[in-house]
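Dear colleagues,

As part of the handover before I leave the project, I'm documenting each prediction I ran so the next person doesn't have to rerun anything. This entry is a single chain, and its sequence is reproduced below.
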Amino acid sequence: MDGLPANSFWQMPRTAYLRARLGRSTRLSGFGRSTRLSGFGSYRAATVRKRFSPQAARRAGCFLLALISLAACNRGAEKQVAVIPKSTSNVYWIAVHAGAVAAGEQYKLRIVWDGPPQETDYSRQVEIVDSMIARHVDGIAVAATERDVLGQSLDRAAGENIPVTVFDSGVNSKNYLSFVATDNFAAGQMAGRELGQLLNGTGTVAEVMHAPGSQSTMERERGFEDAMAHGFPKIQIVAKNFSMGDRAKAMAVSEDLLSAHPDLNGIFASSEPSSVGSSQALKARRLSGKVKLVAFDSSEGMIQDLEGGTISALIVQDPFTMGFKAVETLAQKFAGKTPEKKIDLPATVVTRDNMQQPQIHKLLYPEISKYLK
């Protein structure tokens, strides 16, 4: 260029050489360790680093690649587990959530919590499960609102190699990794025996049931009826009505039962919403303690009603442990292990006489605030 030989750089000062190559209009500023050149070709500015050798460039590039690889490994190490309850509207599912988060912390999993607002919103739960499959989460734990509606979703999850653990309430499908739940038939039998003993083996009772198709509560109701039929033949079940998982409807149903059967001696409520509504009806009718109520699950209000005598006994599950175990089965799968196909958790009868015992107190007051900020 401009008639200068290739080795001219070595024969003249650097400033003169660059001016000769770039033209006299070129402004050179700060020429030294870092030299700024104005007017160089189509660029307005360029920086020439005096001591940036090819070896240093290669070392910097390798370091950058190592950082990128490390970040990618860290992201890949955290698997996502979707936990989908029947609903997000009562304290039972909040305790499940806390247990799932506790397991996520222990096994370094990210918990994605989402569920329908009501336990009878079957279509919304299907939508949530399908959306998690579309997101390609690493695993799913789901409590089925209805035993038949999730079959196709579980088939799709299996097709995508996404392991699914079912908890709390079962499904009519074989495409699941593990089933974690209370032994609900046995829990219903506990309720039947407790109410039968409270009534001294004679009288009339009614059931405030949960909702059609809910396998967990159906098993409780079946267990209750089995205990009555075989252990207390002089007790007659005179009415059975559904609350549809709604406290207000449960109260209305219970008041209807009390009106239709003014001599009713006892009630079994097979879920938390059914229990709350039944208790409210007894208090409204001033029948606390007169009509014996055996309730299922617990909440702050139900514990107060147990202390006050409106509820005679609670059949309590361990939702915190259920949420923990559901996520733990998926963690085992990720680690290459095979979890148990079915994990039964026992229920516990809670009365005013035993509710202050340490193990009972822990069931009634799980560590929710520790894990759900």
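The domain at 79-183+319-345 is CATH 3.40.50.2300 (Rossmann fold). The chain is about 45% helix and 20% strand.

All the best with the project,
I.
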